[in-house]
């Protein structure tokens, strides 16, 4: 990712390899959560809900995330907006892959 050459795995211990794999998985899961938050924050108000009119953005986002799943958000986006099939499929693939990573 940095453009540097990868390490010579022949000189790395088993423990070093395991640690590297765990570190990479941690970075992946953190990045997935960040992307999910960006998508959720972007669409939360686009789908609309009168119930949240009296709340600040931060309060409404917190309430949404406590009550609904990311899968539900994707479903609501699909129901309320015409979105390109490529975007729709990308959201679904992201959800599937996210769930797989959380099972690791």
Key words describing this protein structure:
single chain; 104 residues; mainly alpha; 67% helix; 0% strand; elongated
Describe the structure.
This protein is mainly alpha-helical and 104 residues long. It is built from four helices and no strands. The protein has helices at 14-43, 57-67, 70-80, 85-102.
Brief rundown of the structure:
This protein has about 100 residues and is an all-alpha fold.
Strand content: under 5%
Encode the helix/strand succession as letters.
Answer: HHHH
Q: Sheet bearing the most strands, described? A: none
Classification by helices and strands = mainly alpha
The helix content is 55-70%
Helix count equals 4
Q: What is the number of E strands?
A: 0
End-to-end distance:
22 Å
Mean pLDDT: 79
SSE blueprint and pairings:
Elements: H1 14-43, H2 57-67, H3 70-80, H4 85-102
Helix pairs in contact: 3-4
């Amino acid at each position: 990712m940095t453009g540097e050459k990868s390490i010579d795995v022949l000189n790395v211990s088993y423990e070093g390899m395991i640690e590297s794999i765990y570190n990479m998985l941690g970075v992946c899961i953190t990045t997935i959560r960040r992307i999910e938050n960006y998508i959720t924050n972007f669409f939360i108000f686009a789908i609309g809900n009168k119930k949240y009119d009296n709340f600040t953005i931060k309060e409404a986002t917190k309430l949404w995330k406590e009550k609904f799943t990311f899968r539900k958000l994707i479903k609501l986006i699909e129901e309320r907006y015409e979105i390109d099939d490529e975007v729709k499929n990308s959201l679904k693939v992201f959800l599937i892959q996210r769930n797989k990573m959380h099972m690791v």
